[in-house]
């Protein structure tokens, strides 16, 4: 079969997955038998376009990059109608995240699943707030709700736990879930002060002008919540996760760790003990012999503690245009393998 | 559907997967909807037994552990007949490895696949010598030939590259594929001589009385060959892989590495350059900032260099009764997801 792809939100990630699909079209067909058309794109700035035989993606990319509205195959259908009425078989929900209400992404997801169309999303809103309901709705309609792109997109942890690690019971997850703070801690160990390192991180584009989300641990806390709920079925809310950032770490703390053959890392953790699941984010001194201690710079890593294998650790990049695009692609291929 | 499992070879791994399946029966049913009976076991010491409604596994385990022949449900069918005539839907080929001919495992695999029954194996023979032919035969019959257990069984690398990393082109694999030598190098760094550390490794059961297979790199070479052929389609033979072990590493080499902020590791690597794939095994000094450098003791790790994600590293245990049993289970669940 030929997959008929729809994309909601043609920002960084929407453009990223489009570029990857264009680049890899022949490779994906040859290696996986994966054939597709991108038939619908809906974006609240660029407009809604639809062509059941496939859109002219290079043209759309050119227009979007120039900040212009789409000019070909324009339809006056709203998002609900384009999801329902198009010949799409799978929707990629890549609009902006609202962690309070999940909207408008959650409406898109629901409409698509109710129409019997697979949904792939990198949007933390529907994943953090409504995963169980959406998964149930997808199961009921015998389709998929895939969310690899919502957590450390460049390191495929959700699909790892659901596929290659299937059969293992996971009792604990500990991870470096925020590349920015890991970069900062790495540089601080080389002798820079927190203030200087933050300035460099901002210059390099790792940290935002307002770095609060990273340095206070809030970004890691959102990811921990999703992991706890999806991988371990915790049913917790963001507010349930104790959270401390790296702003209090001083050069003398770095020295203390060194002397003990340890290294500071901002660790997000989820743990099941006596049937109860707790989650937290905070700086910890990690023994240099542990795989997480060797993870340096702006990368991510997670250690899963399992019943059959003990610890299994995966290390890779975090989110970014290409990395999140990859996460969408890997979910598309998972749907393809099951179809 | 209920999977009807047959087991060829009731040694360590055959008993391991049977114990895991017994322990997890309810969990697997509840979490994955995975229901099964073990209906056939064929072992050249304990005998061949078959019951289409399910064997008494605790009884078989008890007899095998006592070194006694099976007494219940005994049939006078040979292996070929039990594979073909039983109501099995999937066979686990867990007999001893012959890396020269692949026999008798390869005959079991062929017979099962030709009979339209899935095959899962931890046997390096069929995987290293006949993977492309067996994969083709399985594809033709719309069934699966699964081999997670053949390489670093406790770290699910084959299913990782085929599932969560699908869509990435892998240009390089570098890994610590032999836990024994990694343990030895870890201890040598603490100040022990090669000879002393070998003695301890033998006492702990990590190294064999004749340690050649580990310390000369031959074990890692077999794994590198399978990875090169399966993950990268190299079509190479064991003899094509350049191989050097750790026997030449002296305390002064360890010191040299330390001074350069590096650490010795026995690295198996496969690399694609200008369309040509080369593979090798040898000791290398790894920068302490690299995830492979932090892998200490008797564990394994692999770094995949990909086009979309750069480096992704996975760290976990090697082979063992439970670990290899896990690899069989994860393949069973993959078959279940696709069924």
Primary descriptors:
6-stranded mixed β-sheet; homodimer; 339 residues; Rossmann fold; 12 strands; 2 domains
What's this entry about, in short?
Two copies of one chain form a homodimer. By secondary structure, chain A is α/β, with parallel strands linked by helices.
Distance between the termini of chain A: 8 Å
Strand content of chain A: 15-25%
Q: What would you give as the CATH superfamily of the largest domain in chain A? A: NAD(P)-binding Rossmann-like Domain
What top-tier CATH class of the largest domain in chain A fits best? Answer: Alpha Beta
Low-confidence stretches of chain A: none
- What string gives the helices and strands of chain A in order? EHHEEHHEHEHEHEHHHHEHEEEEH
Word description of this protein:
The structure is a homodimer of 339-residue chains. With 339 residues, the first copy, chain A, is of the alpha/beta class. Chain A folds into two domains: 171 residues, NAD(P)-binding Rossmann-like Domain (Rossmann fold, 3-Layer(aba) Sandwich); 158 residues, 2-Layer Sandwich (Dihydrodipicolinate Reductase, domain 2). Chain A contains 13 helices and twelve strands. In chain A, the strands form two sheets. Chain A has a six-stranded mixed beta sheet with strand order 3-2-1-4-5-6, sandwiched between helices. In chain A, strands 8-10-9-7-11-12 form a six-stranded mixed beta sheet. In chain A, helix 1 packs across helix 13, helix 4 runs parallel beside helix 5 and helix 8 packs across helix 9. The mean pLDDT of chain A is 94. Chains A and B meet through helix 2, strand 12 and helix 13 of A and helix 2, strand 12 and helix 13 of B. Strand 12 of chain A pairs antiparallel with strand 12 of chain B.
């Amino acid at each position: 079969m030929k997959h008929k792809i729809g994309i909601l939100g043609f920002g960084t990630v929407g453009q990223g997955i489009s570029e990857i699909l264009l680049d890899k079209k022949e490779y994906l067909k040859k290696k996986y038998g994966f054939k597709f058309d991108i038939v619908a794109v809906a974006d609240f700035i660029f407009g809604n376009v639809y062509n059941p035989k496939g859109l002219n993606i290079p043209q759309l990319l050119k227009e979007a990059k120039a900040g212009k509205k789409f000019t070909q195959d324009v339809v006056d259908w709203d998002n609900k109608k384009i999801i329902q009425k198009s010949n799409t078989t799978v929707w990629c929900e890549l609009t902006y995240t609202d962690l309070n209400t999940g909207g408008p992404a959650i409406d898109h997801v629901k409409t698509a699943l109710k129409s019997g169309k697979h949904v792939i999303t990198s949007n933390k809103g529907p994943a953090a707030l409504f995963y169980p309901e959406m998964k149930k709705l997808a199961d009921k309609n015998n389709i998929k709700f895939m969310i690899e792109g919502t957590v450390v997109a460049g390191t495929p942890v959700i699909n790892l736990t659901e596929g290659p690690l299937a059969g293992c019971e996971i009792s604990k997850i500990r991870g470096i879930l925020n590349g920015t703070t890991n970069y900062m801690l790495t540089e601080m160990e080389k002798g820079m002060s927190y203030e200087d390192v933050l300035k460099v991180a901002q210059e390099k584009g790792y940290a935002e002008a307002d770095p609060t989300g990273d340095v206070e641990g809030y970004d890691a806390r959102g990811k921990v919540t999703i992991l706890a709920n999806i991988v371990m079925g915790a049913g917790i809310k963001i507010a349930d996760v104790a959270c401390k950032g790296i702003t209090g770490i001083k050069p003398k703390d770095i020295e203390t760790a060194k002397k003990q053959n340890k290294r500071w890392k901002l660790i997000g953790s989820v743990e099941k003990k006596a049937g109860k699941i707790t989650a937290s984010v905070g700086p910890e001194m990690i023994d240099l012999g542990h795989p997480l201690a060797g993870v340096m710079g702006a990368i991510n890593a997670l250690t899963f503690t399992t019943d059959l294998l003990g610890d299994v650790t995966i290390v890779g990049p975090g989110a970014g245009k290409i990395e999140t695009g990859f996460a969408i692609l890997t979910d598309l291929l998972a749907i393809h393998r099951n179809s």
